[in-house]
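Hi again,

Forgot to attach this to my earlier email, sorry! This is the prediction with CU-O-CU linkage bound. I've pasted everything inline since the attachment limit keeps bouncing my files.
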Amino acid sequence: MNVSRRHFLAGTAAIGAVGTGARAQPAGTELIPAPARATIAPGRETEVWGYNGSVPGPSLRFRQGGRARIAVTNRLNQDTTVHWHGLRLPNPMDGVPHLTQAPIVPGGRFLYEFDLPDAGTFWYHPHASSAEQVERGLAGAFIVEEREPPVVDRDLIWVLDDWRLTQEGAVAGEFGNMMDSSHAGRLGNTVTINGRVPERFAVQGGERLRLRLINAANARVFGLEFGELNPTIVTLDGHPLEPHAPPGGRVILGPGMRADLILDIGAAPGATLAVVDGFYARGRYKLVDVVVEGRKREVPLTQPVRLAANPLSVPDLAAAERVVIDLGGGMMDPRLMRAVRERGGQPDPEMIRTMRERMVAGQIWTLNGQSVMGHHHAPLLTLQRGRSYVFAFNNDTAWPHPMHIHGMAFRVLTRNGQAVPYGEWRDTTLLDPGERVEIGFVADNPGDWMFHCHILEHQEAGMMGTIRVT
Ligand code: C2O
Ligand code: CU
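Structure tokens for the complex follow:
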């Protein structure tokens, strides 16, 4: 039995079960975040928070050009919201507490309703106390099917997550502690696919799979090596691009990021092929064994896998306004190191004092020198509606940061001054330590939009702001 099948059996409350190829959503969908129990690792139960009793929540499926109508009833003992990550929707539907809506109080209900201009792999999660709520299991896939989907044998979803469990199998506490917040975020000790520690994933020879990868972890970056499975990347963050093999043999997914792969299973029945996560040099591990059981067909499918583009506004780069976004802060702050070096090894007392004050206030990270806490605040940037912008990110920290913008998709232009090969559209882009990345987009969606690092402990420790499009 493969992972998705198990998820289907486990998640009887699920509306659109993973991997069943279940077609578009009935008119009204209910999501109920509530405490639940789940078997994350074999042989023991974990208390989690789930949507409709399952972890991850039900996979929602809609059709491009359709409309989503989703009622959320809060059965948690704290405020929540649901954010529809990557979807371009009207600002009041974006699910950011205090900024785009009042929080959904315990027992409260909120109806989300919006059109779906883009096809692709998206996801949903709370935006209230997200470092805790997402970590406890609140997340799910949101799939918008193309008008003409590619021909595949199975359309599968892997929601990747990373849990920090205690020896007893409980979700460890101390969300957003100083240690996690000032370093790489909350890295866990248990990686799951669709809420379960995976053992094996059964495929058939000659089969063509569409595999939708979603990184729902708080902080873990995945660098998945599929080896001889030879995947082809066909979308990133939901948006189609020139089909290509993963650069360097790795599919890199920072928190919040997605990739759709096409896998043509070339190996013979009986073969076992490992998928390895090699992102952290000292933490390589085998994610799952892909086992070829039987043969689907002798002659592989050869239909093209290039997907039709989503209707995005293309930025006018010649006329675009350039905005520099400096990422700062965290442990081993390069600015501090430089300042110390310039003073011949002596730390600047003034700098140390500000840093200490910030730390005490939990303001560990900055965007353009500001450390923003909570959701309601003056905009970091005000953009003119309809205008093109280039954001020049400069990661002046010792840590990677997946930077995410709500409400609009952007095109990645350059990395460290070099044009990127596929000019992909994304909603989240990962910046390595010291890296400079330029993105371009049209500020075509009015409202106040969150803009933050998707390592949720970094977000809650200041690495966020609001972009106002007016
Ligand atoms: Cu997944 Cu503010 O986003
Ligand atoms: Cu970050």
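The longest strand covers residues 285-295. The mean pLDDT is 92.

That should be everything now.

G.
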